[in-house]
Amino acid sequence: MRHDEASKSAKTANHTKNEKETPAPTPVVETAEPEAATATTVDGTAAQVELERVQAERDQLFDRLARLQAEFDNYRKRETRERADYRDYALINTVEQFLPVLDNFQLALSTQSTAEQLRSGVELIVRQMGEVLRSLGVQPIPTVDTQFDPRVHEAIEMVERDDLPDHQVMDEVRRGYTLRERLLRPALVRVATNPKQKTA
Question: Minimal CA–CA distance to 155: which of 120, 132, 116, 188?
Fold first, then answer.
């Protein structure tokens, strides 16, 4: 009986010992498929290449914009300078034509002459001045004995007259001028008004 108990005891001890010596099963770890890892790497490389391409294109556009802005600034400065040069040239040309007129005025003032001689000299200077203005394209506006035109005439007085047509310019107070069909200043005039010839 004791022998059976001892035998049972030994079997139980061996069984426990075997359980302790048996290694525990290793857990299975799932790893990514090699193909999926390769696809991710390829996608990352393609994105990097695309990013570099876009950055290079951006840099080219910024460079082109900077060059265009510099060219526009240079053009604006050149155009301003050329306009100033043209204005100076036109002014010089105009002033040169008026210098002889000024010389004649100074000559008339410096000479001892009678009133009639002085008047005759001034009339010559006025004609000379008119020629200079005509050479520049400046024309006087016709006034006396013409019909009043509000585009080129400015009436300072309306005078009732039975012997003149209605709205006829009867007197010029200040001469007006045009420059190549463009109004420089209107002529100041007095205009006749005829009550017998009033237009509707």
Answer: 188
Give the predicted TM-score (pTM) of the model: 0.56
Measured distance CA(167)–CA(197) in Å, rounded: 9
Q: How far, in Å, CA of 95 to CA of 168, rounded?
A: 37
Rounded to an integer, what distance in angstroms lies between the CA atom of residue 198 and that of residue 177? 29
Specify the fold of 138-200: Nucleotide Exchange Factor Grpe; Chain A, domain 2 (2.30.22)
Distance, CA of 111 to CA of 30 (rounded, Å): 122
Q: Positive or negative, the Cα torsion across 48, 49, 54, 56?
A: positive
Contact yes or no for 173/143 (Cβ under 8 A): no
For residue 75, CA distances in Å to 72, 79, 178 come to: 5, 6, 34
Q: What is the domain partition of the chain in residue ranges?
A: 51-136, 138-200
Express each pLDDT in 47-91 by its tens digit. Answer: 888 999 999 999 999 999 999 999 999 999 999 999 999 888 888
Report the CATH number of the 51-136 domain: 3.90.20.20
* Two structure tokens written together for 140: 């006087």
Supply 49's token pair.
């290449």
Alpha-carbon 138 to chain mean position = 31
